[in-house]
Amino acid sequence: EMTLRAALLDKAGKKINEWELDSRICDCCQTTIAMTDNGPVIIYRDRSDEEIRDMSIVRYVNNEWTQPKTIFPDKWKIAGCPVNGPRADAIGNNLAIAWFSMKDNKGEVKVMFSADAGATFQQPIQIDEGKAIGRVDVVMLDKKTAVVSWMEGSVIKAISVHADGTKDQSVTIAESSDSRSSGFPQMTRSGNQLIFAWTDSKTKTIKLAGLKL
Question: Does the predicted model carry a pTM greater than 0.90?
Fold first, then answer.
């Protein structure tokens, strides 16, 4: 069984402390971390004894890690790793988490906001268009707005989502491939634009695109 662990290092690389955060998690899904004003939060795909693989969060509060907590009960039961982890970003104690789920064979991409560093969450907002395969990323633009990217079939898309539940019109970033070799598109903010990077599985190269905010 795969465990989730964390360590604290000093500037010289010396390990100061380490912890086991969860004794049984999903085998291959990417883990994400965000730094809030209250401390770091880690979000990951958990794994119950019944093979329910929903998203959980642990938070570093008052020099201790909280117990794992499910952020939303998708109740996706799958006896194998979907290799499709969550992503998170924070501004102050405002946190946004995006993730993929596929209960009943229906792919969904959701985003959820927290105003207290992940202690509580608002209701999830579904942003996919019916053919999602996940591979998400998220960047917060301000305390109540996040941009989420994901793959809708072979297309990389992005959308602005607001904490009040409203969404802007989605935009197409690029045509990619739904094959595993196309990897996971990445997104980051640089000044007044978002930069996207993804693998072109045909040419075996990394491509870039910019989107002005």
Answer: yes
Residue 112 tokens, joined? 């959820």
Question: In which residue are the tokens 């999602």 written?
Answer: 132
| Residues contacting residue 163 through CB under 8 Å, at least 6 positions apart | 94, 113, 115, 122, 143, 144, 145
Name the residue among 66, 85, 71 with its Cα closest to residue 25.
85
How far is Cα 44 from Cα 99, in angstroms, rounded to an integer? Answer: 9
> Could you tell me whether strands 32-36 and 69-70 are parallel, antiparallel, or unpaired per DSSP bridges?
unpaired
The tens digit of pLDDT for each residue in 167-193 reads 999 999 999 888 877 789 999 999 999
- CA-wise closest residue to 54 among 26, 93, 27, 91: 26
Cα→Cα distances 191→7, 17, 176, 194, 211, Å: 32, 36, 26, 8, 11
Give the C-alpha separation, 66 to 58, whole Å.
5
Cβ(116)–Cβ(92) below 8 Å: no
